[in-house]
Amino acid sequence: MKKVYGLWLLAFSLKLFGSGWDTSWHFKYFFDTFSPPHNINTIGFILAWVLIFYHWGGTEQAQRWVVRLPHSLQGFTRRWVLVERLGTERHIDMGALRITTTGMLVFLIAAPLDQAWHRIFGLDLTTWSPTHLSLFAGTELMILGVLLGFYRTSHTNWHGSFGSIAPILFSGFLLEAFLFACGQQEYGYIALYALNHPEYVTVQHHTTFPIPALIAQANAQGGATILATGQVPTWLYPLYQLLVGSAILQFARLLHRRVWTATAVAALYLAYRLLARFILHSFDFPVSFVPYYLIGIGLSLDLFGWLSQARSKKPVKPTSTGRNYAFPHHKPPIHWRALAWGTLAAAGATAALYGGAAIIQRFEVMPPIPLGSPQFGFFNGGFPLGFLMSCLGLWLAHTLFSAFETQARLQQARDAARALAIARSPLATKKA
């Protein structure tokens, strides 16, 4: 299992490096299909395909598919396609494998559509285009499926350092995949500032301006500010980060069940962003703003989550029915205490983003994160709506985790029933 998921980490690392370079590349060079970032991304994509074929090779569906083939092809398929000599244990359950395969198919469909989109409309001025969002969705589903597959397999069959570190790494990949669309604003606002302040480029960063073709296309569509906004409203950037950051970091906490998981995932993501910025800066590529305040979101979720668990660890008294619940009822009611701690976590995450942004913008060029609108003040967007987005993200994390845990229990029950039926079959009885 360590080798298989190690290869998955390599595949996602290649896709991460290629996609991260790609955004900076297109602020410096015009669109081209076989650019170095695209080629690196493609290598990771091919490795992911190989791994998906490997996982499917050990399933019952693959065996039924081989039986339908002509007899002359069955031996070849079993040896070179299913690679049966590697065994039938491929370290992933069917639910997770279906999610991963769906993500790969979405990516496979979106990739040529994105090429056609560029051929028709030219260079995109946004990462928020339909084809880009489809590519992101495919990658997100792949990582989610692999993360769940590793979690369910390692939960019973694996212990040690790899079993502790790998979920953090996969969660970091998932967070980066969801936040990748924000790169438009994070690169764009620095590019826009550089156009108006040449000394920022020559003195501080020594990075390149956006290419003339990009500037010309932005001016043709309404002005150079489109480079920074990506043709989406300004409020989308902070609210999307709160929604996605809260959901994924909380989901990672539920999976990993360690005290500082969310902080570790956020710190890993920020370390990657800082390293990428240093490398791009060193090779004279456009750089992006790094959302440092994400560490505050992780700290808030971990701190209030830990306090919630610490407060709930009380002696449990048996009820009259003999069932042990933490509440004096015959069935568990709504966990109001956990809900209250979750509300505090969401408030802390929102304060970390808006408070951190207010401090950081004094020292760095960054996308605007207003507390509210000039017309209606604090309660129109900004902090209140960000708090609701963080609450929604936490709810989505718990809902998704519960759904996948339920599916996993059903899968275990089906496997146990199948094994029992095989054990009681006349053939098994005869062999016994």
Strand content: under 5%
Mean pLDDT: 81
Q: Please report the number of helical segments.
A: 17
Compute the number of structural domains.
1
Shape: globular
Q: Helix share of residues?
A: over 70%
Structural class: mainly alpha
Number of separate strands: 0
Major β-sheet, in short? none
* Order of secondary-structure elements: HHHHHHHHHHHHHHHHH
Uncertain spans, ≥5 residues at pLDDT below 50? Answer: 315-334
The first-to-last residue Cα distance is 32 Å
Radius of gyration: 25 Å
Write structural notes for this entry.
The chain is mainly alpha-helical and 432 residues long. 72% of the residues lie in helices and 0% in strands. It has 17 helices and no strands. Helix 12 packs across helix 14 (294-312) and helix 12 (236-256) runs parallel beside helix 16 (382-424). The longest helix has 43 residues, at 382-424. The model is unreliable at 315-334 (pLDDT under 50).
SSE layout and pairings?
Elements: H1 2-28, H2 36-56, H3 60-67, H4 71-80, H5 94-121, H6 130-157, H7 161-179, H8 183-196, H9 198-205, H10 212-220, H11 226-229, H12 236-256, H13 261-282, H14 294-312, H15 336-360, H16 382-424, H17 426-431
Helix pairs in contact: 1-2, 1-7, 2-5, 5-6, 6-7, 7-12, 7-13, 8-9, 12-13, 12-14, 12-16, 13-14, 14-15, 15-16
Write a short abstract of this structure:
This protein has helices at 2-28, 36-56, 60-67, 71-80, 94-121, 130-157, 161-179, 183-196, 198-205, 212-220, 226-229, 236-256, 261-282, 294-312, 336-360, 382-424, 426-431.
